[in-house]
Design goal:
The protein is of the alpha/beta class. Helix content is about 40%, strand content about 15%. Strand 9, helix 12 and strand 10 form a beta-alpha-beta unit. Helix 1 crosses helix 3. The longest helix is centred in the last third of the chain and has 27 residues. The chain is globular and about 75 Å long.
Length: about 475
């Protein structure tokens, strides 16, 4: 249903009930509210339109009289007719059945709530996994487009693998991480999520098994599930994914791939140790289990550079390496990359051309300039300092207000604190209650359906003042719910 941004005009000579009737009728007659669409309850509509319930009843009665809506016991009020069914005997398409028949799984209800509420202007976003607008280099990016460049700004389609200048720049950038590749092994994608979609389309068959860390970002998106694949979670400890459990799982299930975020894992911020990385690569090499390494947070260390990516010690072409500018320069650029064996990149670039004909040339130009001008390293230096300050502030607030109700990790980089509640509180109820108080949080069951006592707290988006106000309110709410 609509977000109901429209409101009746009280100064209009047209009665309020007539305005509401005309508005709802237009939605139905234009086909925006299709047959089967459920109308909210009368009390809800009265609240939305800021009128008395009696006004709503009059408007609905007129729609019933027109034969457009009908109340059904147990189903509420639904749309039963629209323009097409009124003027012709041929029934219109039932779009609700199309929606239900789609192969892509819908988001969890909580995630749908989060995606909607993130754009509310009066919400404190303790959930958002991106840089705050005040940390994004918007002005510098504008300057990049205005200043002269040795690279040509093209508005034409790029070659299948992406802009060659950007791919060369990425190869040079990855050398600092110990990854030696050529541009032919790089595919430019519209963010890491598209890389996962291409992998699911181009490399895997329906029914494949994907291993992943538990908890994991992968369970908060339905990329592989919607392609008919099975996800198996592998628990972690403070050193990273547990190889002993992965070994047992591999004996019983023929895994097609392992998805991992070794550096500042989402949502836990765990940094996989050097020894664990070597153990993981050794195991996967022996088992011939390919790895998708997601390194979206690898540049966001606070005190010392993180360990080399798994890809840096990969000598068998075992790893598909994902990188992105979404967490450092801004998600709006929609630029990431996938590095892997040339036959794989050739296959996926062909599919990408079939689906979107290439990522934004404007964004590719901008990222090329960031990487080749030295501006990116300078930007990272400042972002690390600012994120560390936010992390330290968040830890201080937690120590002051959460020490009796929760425990937490102290991340060495990235965006998140994995907060474990030590009191009996429903995290689903907490999510909804916090939302009523103007606070948006990510409950742990988004990342592990069996998790009932974790919250992912992000310190990257909310302002420092919002972090303090939001976390104080959240602590009071938890304690109140625990009484």
């Amino acid at each position: 249903m609509s977000n109901y941004e429209w409101k009746p005009t009280r100064t209009s000579p047209i009665p309020l009930h007539q305005q509401i009737y005309e508005y709802m009728k237009e939605k139905i007659m234009n086909g925006e509210w299709t047959i089967g669409t459920k109308i909210p309850p009368q009390r809800t509509l009265a609240k939305i339109f800021k009128v008395n319930r009696s006004t709503i009843i009059i408007a609905l009665d007129e729609l019933v009289a027109d034969g457009l809506i009908k109340s059904k016991v147990g189903r509420g009020t639904i749309v039963i007719n629209n323009t097409w069914s009124i003027i012709t005997s041929t029934p219109p398409p039932d779009w609700k059945s199309y929606v239900r028949s789609g192969t892509h799984h819908p988001n969890q209800e909580v995630i749908q709530h989060i995606n909607k509420e993130e754009f509310s202007s009066n919400i404190i976003r303790l959930s958002t996994g991106e840089l705050s607008p005040e940390l994004l280099p918007s002005e510098k990016t504008k300057e990049i487009f205005l200043q002269g460049s040795k690279h040509t700004l093209s508005l034409s389609y790029t070659e299948p693998k992406g802009n060659i200048h950007l791919r060369v720049a990425i190869c040079d950038y990855l050398k600092s991480k110990g990854i030696g590749i050529t541009p032919d092994s790089v595919l430019i994608v519209s963010g890491g999520l598209q890389a996962l979609q291409l992998i699911s389309l181009g490399l895997l068959h329906r029914g494949s098994t994907i291993f992943h860390e538990t908890p994991s970002y992968l369970t908060s998106v339905n990329v592989f599930q919607s392609a008919g694949m099975n996800l198996f979670g592998v628990p972690m400890d403070k050193k990273g994914i547990r190889i002993d459990v992965l070994r047992r799982l591999k004996r019983h299930h023929h895994g097609a791939l392992l998805y991992t975020i070794p550096s500042f894992q989402n949502p836990t911020s765990v940094l996989m140790t050097d020894n664990r990385r070597k153990q993981l690569l050794d195991f996967c090499s022996k088992e011939r289990l390919p790895i998708i390494e997601d390194d979206a947070y690898g540049d966001l260390w606070f005190q010392q550079p993180v360990l080399k990516p798994l890809k840096a010690i990969d000598r068998q072409g075992l790893i598909l390496y994902m990188g992105s500018m979404s967490k450092t320069l801004g998600p709006g650029l929609r630029i990431g990359w996938l590095v892997g064996p040339e036959p794989v990149i050739d296959r996926l670039s062909d599919i990408k051309m079939q689906t979107d004909y290439g990522s934004s040339t404007l964004s590719q130009f901008a990222v090329t300039e960031w990487l080749t001008s030295g501006l990116y390293e300078e930007h990272l230096y400042h972002i690390r300092k600012k994120l560390k300050k936010r992390r330290d502030l968040t830890i201080q607030i937690l120590e002051n207000f959460f020490s009796d109700v929760a425990t937490w990790n102290i991340p060495e980089g990235g965006f998140y604190i994995w907060l474990k509640l030590n009191v009996e509180v429903s995290i689903v109820r907490l999510f909804h209650n916090a939302l009523k108080e103007g606070i948006l949080i990510n409950p742990g069951n988004i990342y592990d359906r069996n998790d009932a006592n974790h919250l992912r707290i992000s310190y990257s988006y909310a302002t420092e003042a919002q972090l303090e106000a939001g976390l104080k309110k959240l602590a009071l709410l938890i304690k109140k719910m625990n009484k």
